[in-house]
Amino acid sequence: MKVLVVEDDAQTASFLGRGLQEAGYGVDVAADGVAGLEMASRGGYGALVVDRMLPRMDGLLLVETLRRMQCRVPVLFLSALGDVDERIKGLQSGGDDYVCKPFAIAEVLARVEVLLRRGETSSPAASLLSVGGLEMNLLSRTVRRNGSIIALQPREYRLLEYLLRHAGQVVTRAMLLQAVWDYHFDPQTNVIDVHISRLRQKIDRDAEHPLIHTVRGAGYMLRDGI
Amino acid sequence: MNRRSLRLLRSSTFRLAFLAALLFAVTGLGMLGLVRWMTGTVLDQRVDRSVDAELDTLLKLHEQSGLDGLAAEISARANSLQGRQRSYFLQDGQGNQLAGNLEVWPQGESGGNGRLRFAAPATSGDPGSPVRAVVISLNGGGRLLLGRLQSDRRAFESVVDRVMLGGGGLTLVLGFGVGLILARRALGRLDAINRTAQTILDGHLQGRVPRSGGGDEFDHLAANLNNMLDRIERLVEAMRGVTRNIAHDLRTPLNRLRNRLELAVIDSGENAAPVLSEAIADVDGILGTFNALLAIARIEGRRPSENFQDIDLDDLVAGMAELYAPLAEDQGLSLDVRTGTGLTVRGDRHLLSQALANLLDNAIKYTPCGGRVGVAVESGPAAIRLVVSDDGPGIPPDQRDKVREPFVRLDEARNLPGAGLGLSVVAAVAEVHGGKLLLEDADPGVRAILHITLPKHGRVVNSR
């Protein structure tokens, strides 16, 4: 799977490239908007990482043009503009996700992976999500581990649903805060960790193999096995 | 009397104008009074000379023909045509009236120059003019009173009195009116300046005082104020710029450093040295500080009501309490949530969430195990209050203003994580919403209040 990075700052592009390669993706880099549009329109990329501010062609315009060309490739915006309304503008122009600079490479990797695997993992129509012995029935809103019902608070349910929908992928704390709580700020304290540890107690307490794993320096992952 | 006219009356312009009119009136009255007095003196002197001349004649007659001759002459004079303007009274040694046109010996007062002043009894033709008279004791007993009616002086004085009354009154009325007009004009100009000052206080540094173009002293003042405001705006901009630039420029190399460290962790996989993660955490701390600084600059730099929407405050507080409840519980704190006001305010949901999160972060961080943290929506007559309270160590009164400033941390908090920007962010958010951050003593602990005044940029809708 190949990822196109459209970023004019050579250092940032190289760091992103190395990070993505470590994660097992092929990486192409375009240094300005026009080159990025050309390469992207040739196709063959699973996802695009696009800086908002680019020479020759603005990142927003690049993505708008791609969308007009019926190119549906997932796009992750990078931007130094941290405002929520900037994020909304990015998403309105056709972007799928948004990361503010300065960013952690782990954050970008996690989000790119979610974008790349969006098609295969989430089938919104499915009424049952399951990993290992854990089952979530989306219609009856019940959760079972190895057959026995686990009672969850509404928020815990949504947290687990998000983890299940992205099973096998790293989800960062910021992703959880945005997706489950719809907050876009950076909490000073480990609020998310506490919520995860509550959920963990309910899901993994009596289990032989824990399902919720902590990924050091990045976030969490729900997966079967070790 | 409504507030506007009361303001006019209390304005210094009005007071000055009215004072000037008062001074003018008093001066005018004084001068008229002087003229009245001096003219009176001159008239008195003329009367005195005329009386003295007649007295000489009569005294000579008394020497020649005695008391009886004098009485006959006086009777004749009193009954003559001239006698109507004169007063005569002749008494013998026993006090019996011998001649004269007065019924009784008049009771009067001294008129100066040895003269007696009294009012003539009113007659049908004359309402009792003042009389100026001389009284002489006659050789061989008896006394003579000889006087002149001063009806001309009375007429003159009544004219002057009317002029003084009318003129003085007119001056005062005119002074009052002119004062009001001047005060209205001056207040109008001053109000323009005050409105500009309020605009500046509300955070719009580009507000300027309008000028009438007439080149008067107000225009002069406006020009000077505007120059001063230009300079302040430039300085504030420069300061914001410097802060922003430092944060912005250092953020890029720091992020490179962070990326390098992160790649080193990724490269070394499971065997990554713990020191790398610690270094990343340190860099994250610095980046967090810079991000907060830039966020403050961004919040302060934006126009109020940009991206404002109707926000259900109960939802906002309940959501944030739900996010922080497990954390509080883990720290051994009880979290009290008070909502149910049904209040809606126009504001920025993300900024208000961030502000509440910072306050809750602080409360949970500084309250010792077993304590109590509260978060509530309160409504007042003209304001809504988002309150985060705790029963922790509190903030000493003299430090409460200081902790709102960037980078200020209390000594007790030096060993806890954070850069001391949390409350500055909250203060900036409060300001964008036309409110302020208040810190009150909760005894024990502290109440941090996001106090949003309503008519300005917000609005209450009672949705229930």
What's this, in brief?
The complex is a heterodimer of chains A (226) and B (464). Chain A has 226 residues and is of the alpha/beta class.
Report on this structure.
The complex is a heterodimer of chains A (226) and B (464). Chain A starts with a strand and ends with a strand. In chain A, the strands form 3 sheets. Chain A has a 5-stranded parallel β-sheet with strand order 2-1-3-4-5, with helices on both faces. In chain A, strands 6-7-8-9 form a 4-stranded antiparallel β-sheet, covered by helices on one side. A 3-stranded antiparallel β-sheet of chain A has the order 10-12-11. In chain A, a hairpin with a 3-residue loop joins strand 11 and strand 12 (219-222). Chain A folds into 2 domains: 2-116, Response regulator (Rossmann fold); 124-222, Arc Repressor Mutant, subunit A, CATH 1.10.10.10. The longest helix of chain A is centred in the C-terminal third of the chain and has 14 residues, at 191-204. In chain A, helix 1 (10-22) packs across helix 5 (105-116) and helix 7 crosses helix 8 (173-181). With 226 residues, chain A is of the alpha/beta class. Chain A has 9 helices and 12 strands. Chain B folds into 3 domains: 3-156, Beta-Lactamase (2-Layer Sandwich), CATH 3.30.450; 217-301, Helix Hairpins (Orthogonal Bundle); 309-457, Histidine kinase-like ATPase, C-terminal domain (Heat Shock Protein 90), CATH 3.30.565. Helix content of chain B is 56%, strand content 17%. Chain B has helices at residues 3-10, 12-79, 151-201, 217-268, 274-301, 313-330, 349-366, 422-432, 454-457; strands at residues 86-91, 97-100, 109-112, 115-119, 130-137, 143-149, 309-312, 334-338, 344-347, 372-379, 383-390, 435-441, 446-453. In chain B, strands 2-1-6-5-4-3 form a 6-stranded antiparallel β-sheet. In chain B, helix 4 runs antiparallel to helix 5 (274-301), helix 5 packs parallel to helix 8 (422-432) and helix 6 runs parallel beside helix 7 (349-366). Chain B is rod-shaped and about 155 Å long. The relative contact order of chain B is 0.07. Classes of the chains: A alpha/beta (226), B alpha+beta (464). At the A-B interface, helix 1 and helix 9 of A face helix 4, helix 5, helix 6 and helix 7 of B.
